[in-house]
Amino acid sequence: MKFLLDTHIWLWSLLETHRLHRSISEVLENDRNELFISPITIWETMILAEKQRVVLMPSPAEWVKEALRRSPVKEALLSHAVAVRSRLIELPHHDPADRFIAATAWEYNLTLITMDEKLKEAKQIKVFKTRNIKK
């Protein structure tokens, strides 16, 4: 299957694996799955580092470069179609990053992996449902 990782899922997979639900870890570890992130995830990661909500060493830019090299994710391109869908997606809020991430899942027919309850409400996209598996 093809999955789009929300920013926090990508960061947790690299920095705080204990925060991942077991069923999410299983998806991420399954070599048959294709994992994608949006360029917006990189943008959000850099903002989180600027606000010191996440510490990325030796620098945020270097950390991101290394994380992309070792992470098994592919880039889900930001396109004109994604931009249009970001305005058409039905979400209960107007957070631009969330809108672009949801629109990316919609445009590329990817299942979004997120723990964000607001993103889970998007009707136009598939969202991964965690199973009740204990860690």
Keywords for this structure?
135 residues, alpha/beta, Rossmann fold, 5-stranded parallel sheet, 6 helices, 5 strands, globular
How would you portray this structure in words?
The chain has a single domain (2-127), classed as 5'-nuclease (Rossmann fold), CATH 3.40.50.1010. The protein is built from 6 helices and 5 strands; from the N terminus they run βααβααβααββ. The longest helix has 13 residues, at 96-108. The radius of gyration is 14 Å and the shape is globular. α5 packs across α6 (96-108). With 135 residues, it is α/β, with parallel strands linked by helices. 34% of the residues are buried.
How does the SSE layout of this entry go?
Layout: E1 2-5, H1 7-15, H2 22-29, E2 34-37, H3 39-50, H4 60-70, E3 73-75, H5 80-88, H6 96-108, E4 111-113, E5 126-127
Helix pairs in contact: 5-6
Series of secondary-structure elements, N-terminal to C-terminal: EHHEHHEHHEE
The fourth-level CATH homologous superfamily is: 5'-nuclease
Number of strands: 5
CATH architecture: 3-Layer(aba) Sandwich
In DSSP terms (H or I, runs of 4 or more residues), the helix count works out at 6
The overall pLDDT average reads 95
What is the end-to-end distance? 23 Å
User: What fraction of the residues are assigned to beta strands by DSSP?
Assistant: 5-15%
Which class in CATH terms?
A: Alpha Beta
Radius of gyration: 14 Å
Q: Please give the share of residues in helix.
A: 40-55%
Number of domains: 1
- Main sheet: strands, sense, barrel: 5 strands, parallel
Q: Identify low-pLDDT runs.
A: none
CATH fold label: Rossmann fold
The strands making up the biggest β-sheet line up spatially as 3-2-1-4-5
Shape: globular
Content-based structural category: alpha/beta
